[in-house]
Amino acid sequence: SAVISQKPSRDICQRGTSLTIQCQVDSQVTMMFWYRQQPGQSLTLIATANQGSEATYESGFVIDKFPISRPNLTFSTLTVSNMSPEDSSIYLCSVLTGVEQYFGPGTRLTVT
Amino acid sequence: GIQVEQSPPDLILQEGANSTLRCNFSDSVNNLQWFHQNPWGQLINLFYIPSGTKQNGRLSATTVATERYSLLYISSSQTTDSGVYFCAVGPKTGGFKTIFGAGTRLFVKA
């Protein structure tokens, strides 16, 4: 298993600004993922973040809007850039350990 | 891409009742997990079950990979079972990606 923490747990931001979300894992993992969960919806994969390489983005998500860093095997950041109210969501960090996937507690973002 | 369908979308139970949640998927998968998202938003692993049957207390799950479905059974439901249950699959052709179904929203009444 893995214990994952995220910062901040929630934030309220003004449109046009950017927010960086941090994800810390208690063990070294190769595969890290960032998901978005819009209100009342399921989880959508934003990107896969592997240490030492560029993140791989899913269709509909671009690096300019959601830049990701993965400086080591226990840490990653996701930035939500130039925010609009449509970016109001829960952002979740996830890791794959062995065959099972684990999730952080999420960052609840509200854009006004 | 692979499609993951969960049913029912919503379910209301009286405490003590049993229920079955279903997950259908449209293609072969490497893995399948069931998660419970509690009312505070935390996703909790219930089962890793790409095939076969597993049980954990009042919960059990069965996946029939050849027929592309999985079932989650909740027996003697409790109010703390409320939340959203997600089925998530890893397609055989999708690398390490996990695709989530839309979820089943469960409310257990006292």
Entry summary:
Chain A has no helices and eleven strands.
Helix and strand topology:
The complex is a heterodimer of chains A (112) and B (110).
Chain A: E1 4-7, E2 10-13, E3 19-25, E4 31-37, E5 43-50, E6 56-57, E7 68-72, E8 75-80, E9 89-97, E10 100-103, E11 107-111
Parallel strand pairs in A: 2-11
Antiparallel strand pairs in A: 1-3, 3-8, 4-5, 4-9, 5-6, 7-8, 9-10, 9-11
Chain B: E1 4-7, E2 10-14, E3 19-25, E4 29-37, E5 43-48, E6 52-56, E7 59-64, E8 69-74, E9 83-91, E10 99-100, E11 104-109
Parallel strand pairs in B: 2-11
Antiparallel strand pairs in B: 1-3, 3-8, 4-5, 4-9, 6-7, 7-8, 9-10, 9-11
Notes on the protein architecture:
The complex is a heterodimer of chains A (112) and B (110). With 112 residues, chain A is an all-beta fold. Helix content of chain A is 0%, strand content 54%. Chain A has no helices and eleven strands. By secondary structure, chain B is mainly β. In chain B, 0% of the residues lie in helices and 59% in strands. Chain B contains no helices and eleven strands. Chain B starts with a strand and ends with a strand. The chains are: A mainly beta (112), B mainly beta (110). At the A-B interface, strand 5, strand 9 and strand 10 of A face strand 4, strand 5 and strand 10 of B.
